[in-house]
Structures are given as C-alpha cells and as structure tokens.
Design goal:
Elements lengths: L1 H20 L7 E15 L28 E5 L4 E10 L2 E12 L8 E12 L2 E7 L24 E10 L4 E7 L5 E2 L12 E4 L4 E10 L2 E16 L9 E16 L2 E11 L12 E5 L8 E5 L1 E12 L4 E12 L10 E16 L2 E14 L5 E20 L2
Parallel strand pairs: 9-15
Antiparallel strand pairs: 1-2, 1-3, 1-21, 3-4, 4-5, 5-6, 6-7, 7-8, 8-11, 10-12, 11-12, 12-13, 13-14, 14-17, 15-16, 17-18, 18-19, 19-20, 20-21
C-alpha cells in the first residue's frame, strides 16, 4: 500500500513541478485517505437481501414473509473507502480535485462488494464541476453512526453538476445546475401494455441552491430545488398519456453546538423530489382521471415530508454516542397499489470507542419500520451491529 501511495504522490508532484516551471504557484498538496471497515450483527426480522447490511424502511417487507425467514446474522466490508484529493494555489483561486470511491454496490450491483464512485469533482475559485453532494442536501446532518445508509428522512444525493459559489466559508451561498432524473410508480396499472411505451424526457437541468449562515454556536441552512419532469407516450393508440410536472422542495437544516455535543436537525418538504431523499420511492405516481377517455390516468408528483433529529454526545476524548430518529412520509395517489410505500421510521443509538488514532470500534442498536399505503400492513426490523474501522491517510506537499 505504501508503495502505491508513494507512486501516486510522485506522479502528482512531477506534474506540479512541471506546472511551476510554467509559472504556477508552489504549495500544492495531495491527500490520500480512506478506511477498511467491517460491519457485522444480528437482525431480528427480515429485509430485501440485496440490502442485508443496512436499515432502509423501503426495503422492508411489503407483505408477510416477503423475504423469507426472520433472524439473520450479517457481515460486510462494503463501507470500505479510498480517496485522493488535491489542492493547488493559482492566480484564479484554489484549484481542488476530489476522487473517491467505495465498495458498496447499488443498482445492478446491489448487494455486491463492487467499486462504486462517490465523488469525481473539481473546483477552481468560485466554480466547480463533476459529481459531488447536491447543494440541496446538507451532509453535516448525517450522524456519527455505524449504520451505512443513514437517516431515511434526510436529503442525501451525490449528483453530477456545475456549481457557482459566490460566498465560501462558514457562511456560504451555492447555486447548481444538476443532472435531471426521476422515477415513476405505475401502481395498479403496471402490467398494462399502454404504460410499457412511456419514455421519460428531461430537457432541462435541475436547479438547486443553498445558503448557510455560520455562527459560533453552529449554523442554520436553507436549501431549495426546482425540477421539470416530463414523460412521452410513444405508443400510437387511442390514448395520449404524455405529461409533465414541476417538482420542487425546501430543506431547512442546522447543527447546534451544546458544549462538546452536537444537535443535528433537518426538515424537508416538497413534491417530486424523492430521488434526492436518502430512502424514498418514486417521484411520480399515477392518479385516476377516468372522466377523460383519451387520458384516463395522469402522472402526479408525490408530496414528501422528511425529518431528522440526532444528538452526537462526546462522553470523553475516546468515547462517544449518537442517538436519534428520522422519518419520511409520502402522500400517495389513488392509482398506486395498496401495498405502496407510505411511511418509514428510522432510529438508532450507539456507543463508540476511539482507543487510538485512526481506529474505531463500537456497538449500535438500529430500528426501521415500514407502513403501506392502504392495506394496513406494517413491518419492522431491530438490529444490533458491531463495527471495526481502520483508517489511513497521508499528506504530501504543502509549504
């Protein structure tokens, strides 16, 4: 590992030295960092096996014994992470880059230990581009937890974007044009051939922004987003199911310092912003419109409310606790299935130890609950997780 890190550093500073010959400022730095992490524990109930090592209420059973037997032991190294970041002073401001990935497979790789890109981002002065946190989210709301996925009611999305940051620092202002995208729940009509030929269309980027007011006691932040969601009916028949909706959201968040402890708060509300949420289903649902023979169903953006409240407590320099609660609630449409996701609850409490620098271990009790739309079914899961985290990092360069 050390040979690899030194090789990367050598390549970086060879390029820096070449740049300095052309007049670039000295003082560049390169940070190589990451950690190896093991999560294992006991699960009292069941969930989607592709998400065996996280608590996601949307992945809990939508009907009795959907995922087999209760009571499972799980073990995973999928949180393991590696990253490289650099900083170079220039005449146009600081040039920063960030390239980071982990082993947590999602999408077609869900449930697997595969490389997954987290950040591929660069910025120069007030402008940045690449994949990183959306300005609509506030990463500082995330608690000091062992569970990987985090509070379900939190806005959490790394997106491809271009951003402008006219104010930077503890008080900051950011605007971004983000890659658009949304999903739809075809509900009780999912097996109809008329819906198999509906294609999404996103002619405009999502527009997001944030303003954070920093103070000695912490900060308060407000963020917003507006997005255009369109779909086109490509089947030539008696129906015209094309349509569009405007999604929007407002996110208010804060960190409040209470001595050596931190209170993390967030409340978000919007319509058609589910893919920006940490654990929420489709952005668009079907609404019945039977009085119109050519357009008997409509697509409607789904209203969503998310809440996060966590307290991080530092008992000593080497022992800490995080505890709190989060929830997400969806206002469903009448065309969605009875078993559609309606509400999710998430809670945890832990005890963590840092006996030496760059090593953490601890135990955590986790809880998740799912509530369906109309059939009255609910499911939950209680877990105890034990984790071991070994961090590494090296910094090259600087003054």
């Amino acid at each position: 590992m050390r040979t690899l890190l030194l090789g990367i550093a050598s390549l970086f500073f060879a390029s820096v030295a070449l740049g300095e010959e052309e007049g670039e400022a000295a003082g560049s730095t390169l940070d190589i960092y990451g950690f190896v992490m093991l999560d294992n524990g006991y699960q009292s109930k069941q969930n989607d096996p592709n998400w065996f090592d996280v608590v996601r209420p949307t992945k809990l059973p939508a009907f009795k014994d959907e995922f087999g037997a209760d009571q499972n032991w799980y073990a995973s190294v999928r949180q393991t992470r590696f990253g490289v970041k650099s900083s170079t002073p220039t005449g146009l401001g600081e040039l920063k880059t960030l390239f980071e990935w982990e082993l947590f497979g999602t999408g077609v790789d869900a449930g697997q230990t595969t490389l997954r890109l987290r950040h591929a981002y660069g910025e120069l002065g007030q402008f940045g581009a690449g994949q990183t946190w959306s300005p609509f989210m506030d990463i500082d709301v995330f608690p000091n937890s062992l569970e990987y996925w985090g509070p379900n009611g939190m806005v959490f999305f790394r997106n491809v974007q271009m951003r402008w940051m006219p104010i930077k620092g503890d008080t900051r202002l950011t605007f971004a044009l983000e890659r658009p995208g949304a999903s739809a729940d075809q509900g009780r009509y999912a097996d109809r051939i008329e819906l198999q030929n509906i294609a999404p269309h996103f002619p405009y980027p999502d527009l997001s922004g944030e303003f954070r007011l920093g103070r000695g006691w912490g900060y308060v932040e407000i963020a917003g987003i507006v997005r255009y969601i369109e779909w086109q009916d490509q089947l030539v028949d008696q129906f015209n199911l094309s349509g569009n909706q405007t999604g929007w959201g407002v996110n208010l968040s804060s960190n409040i310092k209470l001595g050596n402890n931190t209170l993390r708060l967030q409340a978000v509300y919007g319509e058609g912003i589910e893919n920006y949420m940490n654990d929420a289903p489709a952005d668009v649902g079907i609404s019945n419109n039977f009085s119109n023979p050519t357009r008997p169903i409509l697509g409607k953006v789904l209203p969503v409310l998310g809440v996060v409240a966590f307290l991080d407590i530092n008992w000593t320099d080497t022992m800490s606790t995080s505890l709190g609660y989060s929830m997400v609630d969806i206002h469903n449409t009448d065309g969605q299935a009875d078993a559609a996701f309606k509400r999710g609850d998430y809670a945890l409490v832990n005890l963590l130890f840092n006996p030496v620098e760059k090593f953490l271990w601890g135990a955590e009790v986790q809880y998740g609950r799912r509530e369906n739309f109309r059939d009255g079914f609910t499911s939950d899961d209680l877990r105890v997780q034990f984790s071991f985290k070994y961090s590494f990092g090296m910094t090259f360069g600087g003054e």
